[in-house]
Amino acid sequence: MAWYNNEYKCSHCATVWYDEWSCKCDDECPHCGARDHSPIGSDDISAFTQKNSDGSHSIYYSSPDAGHNPNYILLATVTSKILAKLIEKVAFNLAKPI
Predict the structure, then answer these.
(1) Which candidate, 27, 44, 31, 43, places its Cα nearest to that of 96?
(2) Which helix (H) or strand (E) holds 17?
(3) 41, 57, 58, 61: which could form a disulfide with 7 (CB 3.0–4.6 Å)?
């Protein structure tokens, strides 16, 4: 499932906060409770590559059936950084609904 780290800024108290969710949805200010704030930015975190201590790269993606958590699944572990970047692109597509 697609997964996003959304950034918000409250129009009432200027609080900035981040919230991870499966969509770019409106949120409530955690400081003052003001509602209906749309994200001012979102990073797609549906997939990522982790560099391992042995120099290899592990690529993870958010399971398409994830609910309230990304439920990351290991897709592959490779030694080539270039190959890891290519596989990560595939992983982003695997996280999206069909």
Answers:
(1) 44
(2) strand 16-21
(3) 41
pLDDT in tens, the chain (98 residues): 889 999 999 999 999 999 999 889 999 999 999 999 999 999 999 999 999 999 999 999 998 888 788 989 999 999 999 999 999 999 999 988 77
DSSP 19-87: EEESS---B--TTT----BPPSEEEE-SEEEEE-TTS-EEEEEE-TT--SS--EEEEEEES-HHHHHHH
First and final C-alpha spacing in the chain:
10
